[in-house]
Design brief:
Largest sheet: 8 strands, parallel, barrel
Radius of gyration: 19 Å
Helix content: 40-55%
Strand content: 15-25%
Distance between the termini: 18 Å
Strand order of the largest sheet: 1-2-3-4-7-8-9-11
Order of helices and strands: EHHEHEHEHHEEEHEHEHHHHEHEHH
Shape: globular
């Protein structure tokens, strides 16, 4: 199993300025090579304390590429619905070059109604825009002189520059929350899947759907599954709880607030059941997240046990993408946590052998 650092800014300007947040995040990135974290990942969101400090993950990952020489750089994820594929393909090629071929590109549909409303894009176009945009970016990266007549974007005889450093392109990932079709589609196309076990429950079933679709499509191995977890490791359970409990509860509160339109006055055929998902998230707490293994909070020994239980519960996964400075956790505490985790937890898992072949 591999472990990497995920950054999900979840603060308001009153809590931390953008400058402070990113200076702290980049300091943590600078520890990756020393401590053995294998990737750096960041989201794309807008306008709200829930993720809004990161409207362009490629900007942060470009800076991160200069703080680590080994870690992969993963968009987690870019949103085709809010981006022109011509611009996005060029930015991907640029970062792949700057990082000497360390980029991996995660794509997502977006799921916050307030973002769609402010961009004046219909929620019911979400899936179509995602599928078209991702395919257009793929072709622009893999081919030259590309012509495409899409529903939303059209272009003729375009060669995107710079060409990708990796051939035929950086590996692709699909971010999926709870829609089975998303897991199946990722497996069919041979892409990795990145998921968030916040709501628990059906993750084992969804991962199995992905693996079965991967195998049925004839791809070698079993694909790649990346799951995101909040993590705080401390010498004592009391210290871990005292530091991480309120920031995690505040994070959950901001998520529900950002997605509140789903339980207020929004529905879409492209997002079946999202009202129930968000209503369920309203009931989540620090305690429930820790109990179900979606948050790794505690001593090294407790976290080793938690990871083993969750790994077995969902049938295995290849990569853990851990949020370490969520909400208002300080740089000092986050750095101490990832050092302790790297020293006393990661060695137990990085030697695990899996029969998984990396997908593209």
């Amino acid at each position: 199993m591999e472990f990497g650092l995920q950054f999900f800014p979840d603060v308001s300007p009153q809590q931390k300025s953008g400058a402070q947040y990113f200076n702290e995040a980049l300091h943590l990135v600078s520890l990756c090579d020393e401590l053995g974290y294998t990737h750096v990942r960041i989201v794309e969101h807008y306008f709200h304390r829930y993720g809004g400090y990161s409207p362009n993950p490629i900007v942060f990952l470009t800076a991160a590429s200069q703080r680590t020489q080994k870690a992969r750089l993963i968009t987690g994820a870019v949103l085709p619905v809010f981006n022109n594929p011509l611009k996005l393909a060029g930015e991907i090629g640029m970062l792949d070059a700057i990082s000497n071929g360390r980029l991996e590109v995660g794509f997502a549909r977006a799921f916050l109604p307030h973002e769609f409303a402010r961009f004046r894009i219909n929620l019911n176009e979400s899936r179509a825009r995602f599928e078209e945009g991702m395919e257009q970016v793929r072709r622009l990266l893999e081919e030259e002189n590309v012509t495409m007549e899409g529903q939303f974007h059209r272009f003729e005889s375009v060669t995107s520059l710079p060409r990708p450093t990796q051939t035929p392109r950086p590996p692709f990932w699909v971010a999926a929350l709870a829609t089975p079709e998303s897991f199946v589609a990722a497996g069919q196309k041979g892409y990795g899947v990145m998921a968030i076990p916040l709501a628990g429950g059906k993750m084992a079933e969804l991962i199995k759907l992905y693996r079965d679709a991967w195998k049925s499509a004839g791809h070698p191995g079993q694909g790649r599954v990346m799951l995101a977890f909040h993590m705080f490791c401390a010498p004592t359970a009391e210290e871990a709880i005292a530091i991480a409990r309120q920031p995690l509860n505040d994070y959950l509160e901001s998520l529900v607030e950002a997605a509140s339109d789903w339980v207020m006055n929004t529905s879409s055929a492209d997002y079946p059941g999202y009202d129930k998902i968000v209503a369920g998230l309203q009931q989540e707490t620090f305690e429930s997240q820790v109990e179900k293994g979606a948050a790794w909070i505690g001593t090294p020994d407790q976290l080793r046990q938690t990871i083993v239980r969750y790994y077995e519960q969902v049938g295995g996964f290849e990569i853990a993408s851990i949020q370490v400075n969520f909400n208002t956790i300080s740089l000092e505490n986050a750095a101490a946590s990832i050092r302790l985790f790297a020293r006393e937890v990661m060695p137990h898992f990085t030697s695990w052998k899996t029969a998984v072949t990396a997908g593209g």
